[in-house]
Amino acid sequence: DTGVSQNPRHKITKRGQNVTFRCDPISEHNRLYWYRQTLGQGPEFLTYFQNEAQLEKSRLLSDRFSAERPKGSFSTLEIQRTEQGDSAMYLCASSSRLGSSYNEQFFGPGTRLTVL
Amino acid sequence: QKEVEQNSGPLSVPEGAIASLNCTYSDRGSQSFFWYRQYSGKSPELIMFIYSNGDKEDGRFTAQLNKASQYVSLLIRDSQPSDSATYLCAVFPKLIFGTGTRLQVFP
């Protein structure tokens, strides 16, 4: 399977704990995006990387959230001191300039986070 | 006003009919427009994108863009029950998605 992969697929944690999610993009894609989606809403942009550089962060990304892409390949999203409001589906997407533009993003299956 | 607006639906159409999904956006600087389909519990999958005013057809799908009216639509011809899903409109480069329209195609 050469699509975007995310691990874990589901995570249940207690309020106050730290969690980390991983995303492996499509191998030739140099842009990687993180989104959060709650029930009945569209994906909300959190941040994106071009290679290892984090180019943009949403105001939604509080100080408790941090993302890395150290070697320009896989990325991790860490949430510290989780709150119940962090419960959501966390989606990763990747894109490449091989197509007509950078904008054709392909999504992974998501990590569903439940904070008790 | 939301930056990208979609009617949440549900939009119910009979099998074989044309489903028309609409999206308006507020940023006149928006350059490209994407339609994603999302089945319940799954991640979004890209259906079509459009950059220029006018129509773009791909199989049973037609995307229509009118930048003057800040309006983009998706037509699905010969709708099938398997088309039942939520359709998300996305506007770039600001990376903003609408809340989606739920489509129900009944036999």
Strand content of chain B: over 45%
The whole-number mean of residue pLDDT values of chain B reads 94
SS summary, helix count of chain B: 0
Largest sheet: number of strands, sense, barrel closure of chain A: 7 strands, mixed
Treating each run of at least 4 consecutive H or I residues as one helix, how many helices of chain A? 0
Rounded to an integer in angstroms, the radius of gyration calculated over CA atoms of chain A is: 14 Å
* Percent of residues in beta strands of chain A: over 45%
Main pleated-sheet profile of chain B: 6 strands, mixed
The low-pLDDT segments of chain A are: none
- Describe the oligomeric state of these chains in a short phrase: heterodimer
The radius of gyration over CA of chain B amounts to: 13 Å
Q: N-to-C SSE series of chain A?
A: EEEEEEEEEEE
Give the class of chain B from helix and strand content and strand pairing: mainly beta
Distance between the termini of chain B: 36 Å
E-strand count of chain B: 11
E-strand count of chain A: 11
Short description:
The complex is a heterodimer of chains A (116) and B (107). With 116 residues, chain A is an all-beta fold.
Question: Any overview of this molecule?
Answer:
The complex is a heterodimer of chains A (116) and B (107). Chain A is mainly β. In chain A, 0% of the residues lie in helices and 48% in strands. Chain A has no helices and 11 strands. In chain A, strands 2, 4, 5, 6, 9, 10 and 11 form a 7-stranded mixed β-sheet that branches. In chain A, strands 1-3-8-7 form a 4-stranded antiparallel β-sheet, with no helix packed on it. In chain A, a hairpin with a 2-residue loop joins strand 5 and strand 6. The N and C termini of chain A lie far apart (33 Å). The mean pLDDT of chain A is 91. Chain B is an all-beta fold and 107 residues long. In chain B, 0% of the residues lie in helices and 55% in strands. In chain B, the strands form 2 sheets. In chain B, strands 2, 4, 5, 9, 10 and 11 form a 6-stranded mixed β-sheet that branches. A 5-stranded antiparallel β-sheet of chain B has the order 1-3-8-7-6, with no helix packed on it. The termini of chain B are far apart. Chains A and B meet through strand 5 and strand 10 of A and strand 4, strand 5, strand 9 and strand 10 of B.
